[in-house]
Amino acid sequence: MDNHPLELTINGKTYKTAVEHRKTLADTIRENCDLTGTHVGCEHGVCGACTVIVDGKTVRSCLMFAHQAEGCKIRTVESLARGDELHPLQEAFIENHAIQCGFCTPGFLMLIIGAYENDPDITEENLIEVLSSNLCRCTGYQNIIKAVRSASGGLLAIGSDADA
Amino acid sequence: MSENITPNATFGKGVRRLEDRALVTGRGRYLDNLQPQGCLAVAFVRSPHAHATFQSIDTTSALTMPGVHAVLTIDDLMPVLTGRKLIVGLPSAAIELEVDRPILAGDEVVYVGEAICMVVADTRAQAEDAAEYVEIDFSPLDVVSDCSLAIKAGAPTVHRNLPHNRLAAFGFRYGEVEKAFSSAAHVVGDRYEVHRGGAHSLEGRGVLAMEDSLRGVLDVWSSTQTPLALKKALCELLGRDENTIRVEMPDVGGGFGPKLVTYPEEIAVAAASVLLARPVKWVEDRREHFIAAAQERDQIWDMQMAVDADGGILAIRGSMIHDHGAYTARGLNIAYGSGVTLPLPYNVGAYALDIEVVLTNKVPTAPIRGAGQPQAAFVMERLLDKAAGVVGLDRAEIRRRNLVRSDQMPCLKPLKLRGGTNVILDSGDYPATMKSALEQSDWAGFQVRQQQARKAGKFLGIGIANYVEGTGRGPYESVSVRVNRKGVIEVVTGAAAMGQGTETMIAQIVAEQLGGDLSIVRVKTGDTDNPLGFGGFNSRQTVTAGASAHAAAQKVRKLLLQMAGHILEASEDDLEILPGKVAIKGVSERCATFGEIATAAIGLPGFAIPVLDKPGISASEQVIINDMAYSNGSAVAEVEVDPDTGSVRIIAFTIAHDCGRMVNPKLVDGQIIGGIAHGLGNALYEKMIYDATAQPLTTTFADYLLVSASEMPPVTILHTESPSPLNELGVKGVGESGVIPTAPAIISAIDNALAGWNLHFNRAPLSPQDVYASLRSDSKGERA
Fold first, then answer.
1. Residue A111: which domain range?
2. Label partner for B138 (CA 20 to 30 A): which of A153, B45, B406, B698?
3. CATH class of the region B405-468+630-784
4. pTM score, two decimals?
């Protein structure tokens, strides 16, 4: 199992590293790029804690090899806040108590942001369906849904410079 | 509540959590985010057999694999261990068999997933690769998978050298049970099977250990709910003094019970780190959580209830079998808790329950959110539904007639807690709580809704369940409060945070006394420097740590006022505490800052400390509260059942609850809704399935279903606050409340939706297949 050179673009920054072909994007983001905000909850593509945005699409980074993401624009939870200023969805998560242990939170944030970027007018029904892609054991989801509702105006505003 | 409340009161407010900013920005310090230089990774070689012996472990091939540093068996670890077993069970005279977990299995494995040896390599992937090359010559033995079979005479034994599988037999008995049954107008009963499943915090367990040779200290980080218990076990098993081991609890990605138990893996990883003189880390993956983290599985209850002609409960009797798993990881607490809980919300004249705690060849059981209480509530509420039917009463009415009344409070029950103290329901108005849930859910108007829906071809049902949750397990938790030279309020506690907002809760209680500015409060949870404490379990911390935080903050308040009085040359009566400072009342610019006060109180060499008996603005408290504070509530579920598929949809869910005074209503709501989601899983989805050879079959989230956003119904929460008289704040715990009544309320609603079939579902979880099969096997019923 040899390491092979790899260049990843994450949150607008280039990371040069070398990993085995079998190494997942999730593990590479965490271990080789030191971006530990992306969490690994099941490693079989169900819980969604590892959700990141790759070329505008939300993906489960535990189901993608790092080498597959070469040349793509990857965004993780670390991209959301601008300095001390939180993203409106992060604000809404805090305000609506949509976080308890916080382990699933980065995955939910990226899932929701990806969904709104793809469909700014997403219906309530589709939103719930999207949210059901990820698992949270703490909150019972109600406050996550509340947070999304309260932030959806603010979310649209940031859609334009999303890949910056 | 003390009258010393500052104007900027924080207690009772739904303030934002102190924890959240780091968590939303990806800066949480979870165990697997800690990666010291040169850290090695562990993969455990686990048993593929539910029961087998083995003679040898051949590590030759594994040791040649890339990146491998060591492959360690129990014999390899023994040079740094004082014993081969981890002994952590709570004591009980009823325990007949000693089955403590080995650190690593020696020559027998008794469940699938039991750790046998550990591969230590540069990376986890390399360790897992090499683990496949460890050869173990297993000789499989007979297996017991089902606890009801394990108790039968002649059953194979879970451990080859034990005479039988009955770990313990005990029970509860009060009143004249047989007399009550012989005189009863009606007797109802059934066999109930209740399953809880796994905890499934999104973050698994994990531990990191590294020796710091500069300090001569072994540093251990663990994703645990009880760092103090881990420290105690490490000191014992590594033969070290308390000051040479430091246990830290990083951010914990959910607990829900199993992380309260100290695990063999935590000891093994620490031992490997000492042995190899390297940082060593192991992180539980999801499959390991499914097979090696404690579960709370089956209880089988054969129960009868005797009622009079008016539906009054005369007596309850029966027996219960509790699946203990293969080892003792905690003790008899779950089964004991079930037995105590069953009659609690109601006036039950006589009670007899025989409990058998039975070993099976499965992973050990330990508390999962609710810890025995959900099973007890399920059985009690199902019996009441059955009794209501026989007596001809509305299901809510039979409950109203039997609930403990407010004029009985405090209500001494003829039962004892596991430590021997009395069970005393401390406060609350249970009938009023139920009434509010009934009104909110329009229980009275449901029949009309049901009939209208039926005309449209829909099968709606409604169900109710009451609960009492024992919270605030004593005896105490430590909290110390100190104001530092910068004016920051530093709080350190043994209370453990695993997502509930413990830091915020404690900060609110402390700030309430000290000027109300949460931004200057820093809370460190999970402290292990002070050996006095226990950690997070049993919905205990708001009560125990809350009481200590309140007492310590009051002392600090007094010290601040004393020293400020000296600095400002004013009487304490003329002072008030404002955010970050103490000022002359009404003249806020004439003040001393917390920093100035703390600096004065620390003193200077050779100068007398003014006013104070002791230097420093600090206090440490361990308020002892032995009795438990009982929260209560009532849940109403409204469901739609599709008889053609057996599928169940929750249309609405109402919960009226009373957890005493609420420190933060937002956090209380969060705990309740999260508990309901877990209870919904217990009602309809979550089943940890084993085959007859005790092979676990549901080891992914694709097989074992957690509730997602789609399944969650809208939840309405109603609060009542009956202060507990047991602590000065009047608080009670709430962490497990939501989970307790949810399954019985939903199953009752399913019965009700299918009233035409006259069914009485007697188990949980209930899958669509179960519902579908019952509708077709029941020949008596006819479609309404």
1. 88-159
2. B698
3. alpha beta
4. 0.96
